[in-house]
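Wait, can you check?
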Amino acid sequence: MDIDSNTLEIMNYGVLVSQKRRVRIGNYEINFRRRWEDNDYMYAIEVAFEGKIVARGYFSEFKEATIFAGSWIKKIIIISQCLK
């Protein structure tokens, strides 16, 4: 399995969100939840901007959940750098 450095960076951001469970960056908030359903874990990620949910993702694979959360973190970082 070959993972490029960009995907690895995104997954790293996602793992950080999963450990914190809730990350706030400016007006954005990312919530990472894990539930036990049908003998398996389900991961729910919600992205909110100024309190309104702008994206949701439900995953059965931790890798996919971390990529989803990490990609939002990376987008927010890029946006914040452009606004400076």
Remarks:
- The chain is about 45% helix and 40% strand.
